C-alpha cells in the first residue's frame, strides 16, 4: 500500500518542499516552516503549482516547486534573521538602554522619571509590532 509520505516520482510532499526552501534560506525555525508550509498549500489550492492529493496529503510537482524556490528563496534569505543574529541585536539593545540610563543619571534626572521615559519608549516599540 502506498503511503502519503511516499510521493509519486516527479512530485514532492509539502514537507519535502519546505525542507528544500529552508535549505536555500539557510535559517530554520518552526514559525518560518509553518509560513512556508501554508504558502505551498495555498499555492496548490489556487492552482499556481500543479499538485495531486493522496488522502489528506498534497503532492506538489517537483519542477514547479524548484522553480518557485529559485525565484523566491534568495529573496527570503535576506528577510529572516538567525537566532544568533537576534541574540546579538538583543545584547546591543540592552547596552544601548544602559548607556541612556547612565547619561540621564549624569544629567541629574530622577530615577522615577528615567523609568517613566523607558516605559514610554518600550510601549512605542510594542505598538509598532
TrEMBL record:
It comes from the Bacteria. This is Uncharacterized protein. It comes from Oceanirhabdus seepicola.
